[in-house]
Automatic annotation (TrEMBL):
Source species of the chain: Mortierella alpina
Cited Pfam families: FGE-sulfatase (PF03781), Methyltransf_33 (PF10017)
Identification of the protein by name: Uncharacterized protein
Organismal lineage: Eukaryota, Fungi, Fungi incertae sedis, Mucoromycota, Mortierellomycotina
Histidine-specific methyltransferase SAM-dependent domain segment(s): 126-442
One Gene Ontology biological process: methylation
Domain Sulfatase-modifying factor enzyme-like: 651-899
One Gene Ontology MF term: methyltransferase activity
Length: 902
């Protein structure tokens, strides 16, 4: 591995690590003396050499070799201007320098400033932008020219304006939710902020980390050295958080982040909606490039401004006091400093700004007030007596020269961005006005793409199989070929796991238990050979031409494996020997919370969500597509001449066929906006004196003593038992029998008047009622990326935004009403409908998997709909999918909500 040397400067307070390439300055200075004229030639002759929106998001290909080891030890770190700088851990490892106090003198001199600017070759970028490659194309000036010392001062003034809501709303979120946000940052983490700026907002997060007593190494990355130094000095000192500066570009910061090994958890900060400086493709590429440097479990907190009211955005970037205008116009003055001559007369320009609603971006321009010519003189000091070369640029009256774009993102665009870059969203905090969001995304061990990106109408791709196998790595006769050897594995592992709960001696047929099980090594070898064989089928279209029958087999194999991945977790969660998922930390710090309570002598109480709202649904007013069940997919027609090559029609299981629109439309009903929680179920157990009835205690609970208080009850998770002090607001996982008992108790408490003032019945919803609610949600509310399925969280919570919406007043539209409706996700939803064919006559049993459904049409199994946190998106997002469990299964990832019928 190559070794990168970094210079570490220690001032009277902060330590600064110089990330810039050692040769970049010299090369850039040479270009400024000899190569400026070539800039004009280059942009004319090379149409690919176009102006990037700074800071430019690097493409994925540019970072294929970014995993260069940065050995930042005392041997290769040069300490300048004060060698007695304090460090975090007593070493001079550049990755641990912070808060050093030294008597070293200032190091910000003219040469350093020139080298910082020339490393970007700003003169070349300016001339390129003013000489576009395509004749007549719009001219541009790099956004970077806005940020000299005066520009930074003006921008800081902008952030205090009422009109510039972005800063105010981000501060509001950090002040309100800072403690919740930092719960997701593990102790002993490295936190790197991209484009740190004044740190006015960052200090709120650092204070929250201090309150949590987390040991953190914080690095502020910025290009402007003087501003970086002043900002770090303004932070003061912390007991647990150690601070240092990173002087360099985003790309150099990318290399620095990659220098930390997998044992060091990292969190990136990208605040201030800086993502808006990149267009939508650049933003995707930038996040994708940084994702490669992150390890599994690493976080990224990103501030994003929404597509808000056009007038509000316009005023935010063109305030009445004219500070934004002065900020932008100062860039013209800075250009003359950068180029070292009077190149631009700013009096011949004016600031012009507009919000482009269609593109979703604010646009800032210099508007030419009169036709004139710009002349840049390039001197060659190496040739005596040679006349100066000139670059001449014609400008027309009213011509617009772009200097900045600020892209805005709708919630749907944001969700799509994270899905495309395979970053799992684990948190979202929104300002009270719903104009600005902070998103916390994480690199997870595997990523199940939602159905919008992984087309469910065709068989699963190799990428989907790979991600599924990543998630499974603990554990077909269609081709008319023999089973993979050893063939007897097919028999011993083909075992039923659905005994009759009332009579466990009754179970579906399965092979005899072998006297000796195969070795782990032979099973792993078998698994790998099966996977290789499956990929050969997908790769070799000559030997295995893809048709509908083959695609169905692959679809069945994929979904069945995904379902068993979930059911395996039912067993693992109940075992005290199960280890937490690697590199996916729990977002709560229970030990720290208990320590805080001990210090305050406060009693530990149950966490409780806001009360669930009741959403009214009148099926008679809905489109017939929302009332239907199932979908048309006849397996028997796969080989028909007109169907055999159809790979676009969606697949489904036999119990989903056919599409049925019931002749009897359900009556109007009200449904709870969320599932019943552990805290609510605990109240039911206490009120009805059922805490001593073993059959009524959910198997998802772990009881200490008699369980008479919340402190004695915990919820079983992959992270171990979580007390009701934290898990009380989660939906309760229980059997259908227990859910039905709760419904009866609730009816006895509230049934006399109901929510409408009339006598009501409260019960579990029917399959039809719950299906209508889920379809209405899907049809009216865009995905947010916070839906808890596909292992976006590893425990059964619903998303915070939904919980926040539960306190809203009665809604005036179906979309507003369904905003408060949670699901699918967290836990499956029990219904009161027995699992049976959708049609009484003519049910087509699967020939490829004959017993998949028909074995369970026994009256003991009820339909469950939706998804749990461990459900694959292919299943969770297909509204026709029907799951089922026995009514008295003690432990499944299923909860419930009630309906009210008058």
């Amino acid at each position: 591995m190559a070794t990168t040397h970094h210079t570490v400067y220690a001032t009277s307070s902060p330590a600064i690590i110089d990330l810039r390439q050692s040769s970049a300055g010299a090369k850039a200075k040479d270009k400024t003396k000899h190569g400026l004229l070539d800039a004009q030639k280059s942009v004319k002759n090379n149409p690919q050499d176009v102006y990037p929106s700074p800071p430019s998001g690097a493409s994925e290909d540019e970072h294929n070799d970014v995993d260069v080891e940065l050995a930042l030890s005392i041997e290769d770190t040069e300490i300048s201007d004060g060698e007695d700088s304090d460090t975090m851990d007593g070493t001079t490892d550049a990755t641990s320098l912070a808060d050093g106090e030294s008597s070293g003198s200032s190091f910000m001199d003219q040469d350093v400033e020139e080298e910082a600017a020339s490393s970007f070759d700003l003169p070349r970028m300016i001339l390129q932008g003013l000489c576009p490659t395509v004749q007549g194309a719009p001219k541009t000036i790099p956004t970077m020219v806005l940020y000299d010392d005066r520009g930074l001062q003006l921008f800081d003034e902008i952030t205090y304006l009422d009109e510039y809501y972005l800063t105010q709303e981000e501060i509001e979120i950090l002040e309100r939710d800072g403690d919740k946000i930092v719960e997701n940052i593990p102790d002993n983490s490295v936190v790197v902020e991209l484009g740190a700026g004044s740190l006015r907002k960052t200090v709120l997060l650092l204070n929250a980390l201090e309150r949590k007593r987390k040991n953190i190494r914080y690095y502020a990355l910025d290009l402007m050295l003087d501003e970086l130094t002043k900002s770090l000095k303004s932070l003061g000192h912390f007991a647990n958080v150690k601070t240092a500066g990173l002087w360099g570009t985003y790309d150099e910061g990318l290399a620095f982040v990659s220098s930390f090994g997998p044992e060091v958890p990292k969190t990136l900060l990208w605040l201030g909606s800086s993502i808006g400086n990149l267009n939508r493709v650049e933003a995707k590429d930038f996040i994708a490039s940084y994702r490669k440097t992150l390890n599994v479990g690493d976080n990224w907190l990103i501030g994003i401004d929404r597509r808000n009211d056009a007038q509000e955005i316009t005023v935010a970037y063109n305030d009445p006091k004219g500070i934004t205008r002065d900020f932008v116009m100062n860039g013209l003055t800075h250009i003359n400093v950068i180029l070292g001559q009077d190149f631009i007369d700013r009096e011949k320009f004016q600031y012009f700004a507009q919000y482009n609603v269609e593109a979703g971006r604010h646009e800032a321009y210099y508007q030419v007030k009169e036709t004139h010519e710009l002349v840049y003189r390039v001197s060659d000091n190496h040739t005596k007596g040679r006349e100066e070369d000139e670059i001449r640029i014609q400008l027309q009256k009213d011509e617009l020269i772009n200097v900045e774009y600020s892209y805005k993102w709708s919630p749907v665009e944001t969700a799509s961005l994270f899905e495309q870059t395979e970053m799992t969203k684990v948190g979202q905090w929104t300002s009270a006005s719903n104009r600005y969001d902070l998103h916390l995304v994480r690199k997870t061990p595997f990523y199940f793409k939602p159905s919008s990106d992984s087309d469910t109408t065709v068989c699963p791709s190799q990428d989907e199989w790979t991600e599924l196998w990543k998630s499974w790595d603990v554990l077909s006769r269609c081709l008319k070929e023999p089973f993979s050897e050893p063939a007897y594995f097919n028999d011993i592992f083909e075992r039923g796991i659905d005994p009759d709960v009332d009579d466990p001696t009754k179970c579906h047929s399965h092979s005899a238990v072998p006297e000796t099980w195969p070795s782990i090594e032979s099973i792993i070898d078998f698994r790998d050979r099966v996977r290789e064989r499956l990929f050969r089928v997908l790769d070799d279209s000559v030997t295995y031409p893809m048709n509908r029958r083959l695609a169905r087999v692959l679809f069945m194999a994929f979904e069945h494996e995904a379902m068993h991945l979930e059911t395996l977790l039912y067993m693992l969660v109940q075992s005290p020997n199960t280890l937490p998922p690697p590199s996916v930390p729990a977002p709560w710090d229970f030990k720290s919370k208990m320590k805080d309570l001990a210090l305050t002598s406060a009693p530990a109480s149950m966490s409780t969500p806001p009360a669930a709202t009741w959403i009214s649904i009148d099926p008679s007013q809905l489109d017939s597509s929302l009332l239907s069940l199932g979908h048309n997919d006849s397996e028997a027609k796969d080989c028909a001449e007109d169907k055999r090559h159809d790979l676009k029609a969606a697949f489904g299981w036999d119990n989903e066929h056919p599409l049925v629109t019931p002749t009897q439309v359900p009556s109007s009903f009200k449904i709870q906006s969320r599932q019943v929680t552990n805290s609510e179920f605990f109240a039911f157990m206490q009120s009805s004196a059922k805490l001593n009835e073993a059959s009524m205690i959910p198997a998802s609970w772990q009881m200490e003593g008699h369980g008479a208080s919340p402190q004695e009850v915990s919820v079983k998770t992959v992270y171990g038992p979580v007390p009701l002090t934290l898990s009380g607001e989660w939906p309760v996982s229980c059997s259908n029998v227990q859910a039905t008992a709760y419904a009866a108790w609730y009816s006895s408490q509230h049934g006399s008047s109901g929510t409408s003032g009339k006598k009501s019945e409260f019960a579990l919803p029917t399959e039809h009622e719950l299906s209508i609610a889920f379809k209405l949600k899907q049809a009216t509310v865009p995905k947010t990326g916070m839906e808890n399925y596909g292992f976006r969280r590893w425990y059964p919570t619903t998303d915070d935004q939904v919980r926040g919406a539960l306190t809203s007043s009665s809604s005036s539209s179906a979309e507003e009403a369904m905003q408060a409706f949670s699901g699918p996700g967290g836990l499956w939803d029990w219904t009161s409908t027995p699992f049976a064919p959708l049609v009484t006559d003519g049910f087509e049993t699967s020939q490829l998997y004959p017993g998949y459904s028909s074995d369970f049409f026994d009256g003991k199994h009820l339909v469950v709909l939706g998804a749990s946190w461990a459900t694959h998106p292919r299943i969770a997002e297909r509204r026709s999918f029907r799951n089922w469990y026995q009514v008295n299964y003690p432990f499944v990832f299923a909860g419930f909500r009630l309906v009210e019928r008058c």
